[in-house]
Amino acid sequence: MASSETPSDPVEDGAPPPAHRIVCHLDAALTSRGMTLTELSERTGITMANLSILKNNRAKAIRFSTLTLVCDALDATPAELFSVRP
């Protein structure tokens, strides 16, 4: 690459952005507590759609306020809900 060139942007090239390594364990947390996603939605006020995105590991971010609501409703800690893949 010439000194005047800049590295290509993967988004512009059509390649997907790098994946994150955070894994959400909401499904396991719900199962171990005998709670459904519907019940969690009712307890937290978070939409089913947003909880589903978390549960299926499609979330790119989570607000601390959302995390607090989920943790309180499940009586869980963030460490129980998330891990980092190697």
From TrEMBL:
<feature type="domain" description="HTH cro/C1-type">
    <location>
        <begin position="26"/>
        <end position="81"/>
    </location>
</feature>
<dbReference type="InterPro" id="IPR001387">
    <property type="entry name" value="Cro/C1-type_HTH"/>
</dbReference>
<protein>
    <submittedName>
        <fullName>Putative transcriptional regulator</fullName>
    </submittedName>
</protein>
<dbReference type="Pfam" id="PF13443">
    <property type="entry name" value="HTH_26"/>
</dbReference>
<dbReference type="InterPro" id="IPR010982">
    <property type="entry name" value="Lambda_DNA-bd_dom_sf"/>
</dbReference>
<dbReference type="GO" id="GO:0003677">
    <property type="term" value="F:DNA binding"/>
</dbReference>
